[in-house]
Recover the amino acids of this structure.
């Protein structure tokens, strides 16, 4: 089965496996290989003809960035296990060494494919007037322009380094990019080995003079090689290579650190100097130079990769040119819910009328910022509490909190210092908040706080009303433009009390009791999830309609997967949208024949976490239990993080989530890959009748479905009807 009509098609015929495979470790897919399969899907978008050309280049760049991060974190961890002699098996029964061997083989294939895709894209870009040149293709005008550019904008920041006993091999930081040179002195033919580190602050691609409608670029390393005579006067180039270093980027923090901020600042410096995990070098390096680099960096042959082509493909994001809108996705303006407009932008008045659900990026994230800005300036607001996991460097959310604190309001900010690769930004924001007078707390040493909660306490007459925001994504205005997430605003008193108890837990370590519509990890979220899955299985055994729809980024927690297997065996129909890692093996007789899994990869990064239970009525239905969450179904999220699972009680919000958002994602064809029982993902882009259905395009073009923030009752049947009819006319 491929993706076609996934939502309304019958479940595929199950495959038959041995009893050992059904009950043993082979009932799970390997986490690391599943992640690599996801990155193959990302790379495949760079070859998708329906994607605009420069957006395909962006997907290629993203696939390279993803692979770098995977090596600096996941592969680094596996390598440490191997070096320590740890042979503990993964859930699918593989040792760390076995996993590393499979990872390296698949990653090398992936990198070769990246170069093939790049060559194809370069040809297509040249046809559209965008050229990446080499030194041999330059004309006199180019050379004159480049000499001026080199002297004024590059030469002053370079530090050419000889390598000899008086000049030891320098430290190359994580993601550091350098030229290694074997030079010969013209006066006496004496050999010099040298290194030219390339500062990351300089753009990788140098623009060249071009006619109107054209864009020409030269890679920075080509510019440097062109001007070696200025860097090493009196020498000639006998051989060279470029190389790039990836280092262990995981952080270790002392459990008993007295000052957590200072400890993290120290840990960030240690990360910069972490062990080399992978060395990528351009092919054709002089043997002595190659051996020297590997020896100095402590790299084995298994950790060194020769690249025939462009090194540092992640840098291609620089060539996604805003000046070429004809080669990019069409722009769109995120919508503002009509109810907010009807209340002249007063969010508190709009929320007071009815709960609001925003579907980002189709609906503007600016309202989340406006919620805090309005609270900062409202004289009736007494207190604001906010979690911050990832923020932008100059965060408007933090600015609003600082404004509120400076206005004398009580502001509490939970800043998570352990947000990987955003630690430095979060430390900066915590300092800024403290200077404004906000109370900054850092949660737990052993748990990351990944929950997305904001509360505003407002005096209204003789009462205090708590307005609460629960989100599935980060308070980050930049990623909110490209991530699909949900923002839920409510002044429901029970949800307000729940949020307050969570903040008290984060600041005072007192476990919350009596949560009403909220479950949190690491305390109640996983038990609640397992209970809800088991309850749906009870409905199936009793002969009632039983169905689960869920959407998340990753699914690898073995106990949850086994619960889904048990529900499938009881007769529950389970449809999962898992964008990235999936350890669950669908479509196996006697194990998971009632489970199907798809991954949606496209223009927007699917990031929202949703789970819907039919509650004996099937889906969609008014009796369905619907939850939004900050948590993926992974061990770290369910046992080592503070996360939220929020039950939606409002019927119109429930209808919007089930009958619109989930139904459209399940019905999607254009961006969907369907997971097979052997671990392969299949996609069919051949339209059967008319155009294929795209959930992203659907939400962009149907403001009536999400423009209000909560769907009106008359909108609910639209996707319900869509589920019963061919979807091709909607694409």
């Amino acid at each position: 089965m491929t993706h076609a009509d996934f939502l309304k098609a019958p479940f595929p015929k199950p495959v038959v496996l041995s009893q050992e495979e059904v009950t043993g470790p082979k009932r799970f897919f390997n986490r690391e290989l599943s992640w690599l399969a996801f990155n193959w899907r990302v790379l495949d978008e760079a070859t998708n003809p329906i994607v605009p050309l420069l957006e395909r280049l962006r997907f290629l760049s993203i696939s390279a960035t993803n692979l770098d991060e995977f090596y600096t974190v996941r592969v680094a961890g596996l390598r440490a296990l191997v070096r320590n002699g740890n042979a503990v098996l993964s859930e699918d029964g593989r040792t760390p060494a076995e996993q590393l061997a499979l990872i390296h083989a698949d990653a090398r294939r992936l990198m070769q494919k990246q170069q093939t895709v790049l060559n194809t894209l370069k040809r297509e870009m040249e046809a559209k007037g965008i050229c990446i040149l080499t030194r041999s293709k330059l004309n006199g005008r180019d050379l004159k322009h480049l000499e001026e550019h080199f002297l004024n904008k590059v030469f002053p920041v370079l530090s050419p380094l000889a390598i000899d006993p008086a000049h030891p091999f320098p430290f190359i930081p994580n993601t550091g990019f350098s030229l290694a040179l074997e030079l010969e002195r013209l006066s006496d033919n004496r050999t010099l080995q040298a290194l030219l580190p390339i500062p990351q602050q300089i753009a990788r691609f140098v623009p060249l003079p071009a006619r109107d409608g054209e864009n020409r670029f030269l890679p920075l390393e080509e510019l440097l090689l062109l001007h070696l005579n200025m860097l090493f006067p009196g020498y000639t180039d006998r051989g060279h290579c470029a190389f790039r270093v990836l280092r262990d980027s995981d952080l270790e923090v002392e459990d008993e650190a007295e000052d957590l901020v200072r400890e993290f600042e120290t840990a960030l410096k240690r990360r910069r100097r972490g062990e080399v995990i992978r060395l990528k070098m351009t092919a054709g390096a002089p043997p002595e130079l190659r051996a020297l680099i590997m020896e100095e960096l402590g790299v084995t042959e298994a950790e060194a990769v020769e690249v025939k082509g462009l090194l540092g493909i992640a840098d291609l994001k620089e060539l996604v040119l805003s000046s070429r809108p004809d080669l990019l996705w069409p722009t769109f303006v995120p919508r503002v819910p009509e109810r907010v407009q009807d209340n002249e932008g007063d969010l508190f008045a709009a929320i007071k009328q009815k709960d609001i659900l925003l579907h980002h990026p189709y609906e503007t994230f600016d309202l989340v910022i406006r919620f805090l800005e309005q609270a900062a300036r409202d004289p009736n607001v007494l207190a604001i509490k906010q979690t911050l996991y990832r923020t932008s460097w100059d965060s408007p959310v933090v600015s609003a909190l600082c404004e509120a604190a400076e206005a004398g309001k009580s502001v509490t900010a939970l800043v998570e210092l352990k947000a990987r690769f955003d630690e430095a930004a979060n430390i900066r924001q915590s300092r800024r908040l403290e200077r404004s007078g906000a109370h900054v707390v850092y949660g737990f040493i052993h748990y990351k706080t990944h929950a997305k909660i904001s509360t505003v306490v407002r005096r209204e007459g003789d009462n205090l009303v708590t307005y609460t925001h629960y989100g599935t994504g980060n308070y980050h205005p930049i990623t909110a433009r490209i991530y699909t997430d949900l923002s839920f605003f409510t002044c429901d008193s029970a949800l307000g009390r729940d949020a307050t108890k969570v903040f008290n837990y984060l600041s005072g370590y007192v476990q919350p009791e009596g949560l009403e519509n909220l479950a949190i990890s690491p305390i109640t979220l996983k038990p609640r999830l397992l209970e809800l899955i088991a309850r749906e299985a009870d409905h199936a055994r009793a002969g009632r309609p039983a169905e689960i729809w869920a959407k998340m980024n990753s699914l690898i927690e073995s106990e949850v997967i086994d619960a889904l297997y048990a529900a499938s065996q009881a007769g529950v129909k389970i449809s999962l949208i898992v964008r990235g890692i999936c350890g669950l093996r669908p479509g196996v007789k006697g194990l998971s024949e009632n489970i199907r899994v798809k991954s949606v990869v496209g223009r927007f990064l699917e990031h929202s976490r949703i789970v819907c239970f039919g509650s004996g009525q099937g889906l969609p239905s008014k009796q369905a239990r619907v939850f939004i969450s900050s948590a993926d179904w992974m061990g770290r999220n369910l046992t080592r993080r503070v996360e939220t699972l929020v039950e939606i009680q409002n019927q119109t919000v429930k209808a919007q989530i089930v009958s619109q958002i989930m139904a459209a994602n399940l019905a999607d064809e254009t961006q969907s890959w369907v997971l097979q029982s052997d671990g392969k993902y299949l996609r069919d882009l051949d339209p059967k009748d008319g155009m294929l259905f795209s959930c992203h395009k659907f939400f962009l073009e149907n403001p009536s479905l999400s423009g209000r923030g909560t769907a009106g009752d008359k909108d609910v049947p639209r996707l319900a009807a869509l589920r019963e009819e061919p979807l091709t006319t909607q694409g």
Q: What stands out?
A: The first strand starts at residue 130 and ends at 132. Confidence is low (pLDDT under 50) at residues 251-261, 705-731. The two ends are 21 Å apart (CA to CA). The chain is about 35% helix and 20% strand.
